[in-house]
Amino acid sequence: MGLFDFVKEIGKKLFSGEAEAADKIKNHIEEANPGIQGLNVSFEDGVVSLSGQASSLEALEKAVLMAGNVQGVSEVRVQGLQAPPAEAKVEYYVIKKGDTLSAIAKQFLGNANDYPKIFEANREVIRDPNLIFVGQKIRIPLK
């Protein structure tokens, strides 16, 4: 599963019908303002398409994760979303049963106490570091 594929049945419930999906997802992304200018969102049959200008690759990734971690979304496309090249290496991880941010930090960063780094990298997706859910996709900033 790559950055742009998601589990359709899992995530934050934002909309009840396809007609309102694009507006609800756009508002959800803009509320957190990850750094996207001129954001446009379309939604069709579980696929979200994003366009606009991202201030960084990190902003693009956050917008993708915010859109994808919504119930009813199975894929996010970004052909129209422009971003500068990456500044740091990032890996993506799908939360499994029994995971904690500390355990994920230990696995990827070598120290369980580094979980705030993962939380900060996903603040737009994870509102509370103690409340993550199975199937949620997050960014892991690597050293």
Automatic annotation (TrEMBL):
It comes from the Bacteria. Residues 91-140 form the LysM domain. InterPro entries: Bact_Kbp, BON_dom, LysM, LysM_dom_sf. Residues 17-85 form the BON domain. This is Peptidoglycan-binding LysM. It comes from Syntrophobacter fumaroxidans (strain DSM 10017 / MPOB).
